[in-house]
């Protein structure tokens, strides 16, 4: 088929492993995420997220069609919804959308963003990701998600997984990380020893087979914030994360990376 492009026009759209409502949710698109359309099966379209190349099936009704020019221009989107609860936009019909932190605001101009042919009034002060951000800001953004419930494939305030949490926090600070923990572990620079850790470093954890299965953000040399059941803060040492509720280590430390 002729190449087509779209942009997510709802607050949250699930990406599924198969073209079915019963299929596993592998990830989510947020408002303003733009995609390349790879395949169509009735109302299910296979898409590739332009930001991190993640693929999944979604209901086409959650997309607005955009041109190649708009698709390319959206690569440069540098305004997003900040880490706050008042991320509201209003479409031309007066309908409100309540957006999660890290959602894109494409083609922002004079208080409006544009998705395809639709303009949305932005009812808050956008966050510019290309502005200088400190480690302290990154930590504050991470703490904003504290107690957000864990959801496999989630990338939003009301349901988020470990790598989605790390990806969104870094996006709020102008860093584009890949979607899954094992992919993120291939980015950044290695921190050789735990005592050398700085706040904002990212720790990765593996299973008995040596596969990276978990990730979190270091708050200090002995504390980490991560999504496990919910976004929580736990102690960490050379062995890994210690969960006081379980009375044991829950995740085995593999490697620490630095992105800032």
UniProtKB/TrEMBL annotation:
Keyword tRNA-binding included in the entry's annotation: no
Alphabetic keyword roster: Hydrolase, Protease, Thiol protease
PROSITE patterns assigned: NLPC_P60, SH3B
Limits of the NlpC/P60 domain: 132-260
Domain SH3b per the UniProt entry, residue ranges: 3-67
Domain of life: Bacteria
A family per Pfam: NLPC_P60
PANTHER family assigned to the protein according to its UniProt record, in alphabetical order: MUREIN DD-ENDOPEPTIDASE MEPH-RELATED
Name this protein carries in UniProt: SH3 domain-containing protein
Naturally occurring in which organism (per UniProt): Pedobacter gandavensis
Species lineage: Bacteria, Pseudomonadati, Bacteroidota, Sphingobacteriia, Sphingobacteriales
């Amino acid at each position: 088929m002729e190449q087509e492009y779209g942009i997510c026009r709802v607050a949250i759209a699930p990406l599924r492993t198969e073209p079915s409502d019963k299929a596993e949710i592998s990830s989510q698109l947020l408002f303003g995420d733009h995609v390349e359309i790879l395949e169509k099966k009735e109302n299910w379209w296979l898409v590739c997220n332009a930001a991190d190349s993640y693929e999944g099936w979604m209901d086409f009704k959650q997309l607005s069609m955009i041109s190649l020019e708009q698709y390319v221009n959206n690569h440069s989107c540098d305004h997003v919804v900040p880490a706050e609860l008042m991320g509201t936009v209003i479409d031309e019909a007066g309908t409100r959308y309540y957006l999660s932190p890290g959602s894109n605001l494409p083609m922002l101009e004079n208080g409006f963003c544009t998705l395809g042919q639709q303009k949305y009034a932005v009812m808050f002060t956008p966050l510019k990701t290309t502005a200088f951000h400190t480690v302290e800001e990154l930590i504050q953004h991470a703490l904003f998600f504290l107690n957000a419930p864990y959801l496999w494939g989630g990338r939003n305030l009301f349901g988020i997984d470990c790598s989605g949490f790390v990806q969104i926090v870094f996006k709020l600070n102008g860093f584009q990380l890949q979607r899954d923990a094992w992919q993120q572990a291939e980015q950044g620079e290695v921190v050789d020893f735990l005592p050398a850790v700085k706040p904002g470093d990212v720790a990765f954890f593996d299973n008995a087979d040596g596969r990276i299965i978990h990730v979190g953000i270091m708050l200090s040399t002995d504390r980490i914030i991560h999504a496990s059941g919910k976004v929580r803060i736990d102690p960490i040492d050379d062995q890994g994360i210690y969960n006081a509720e379980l009375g044991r280590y829950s995740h085995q430390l593999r490697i620490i990376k630095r992105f800032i």
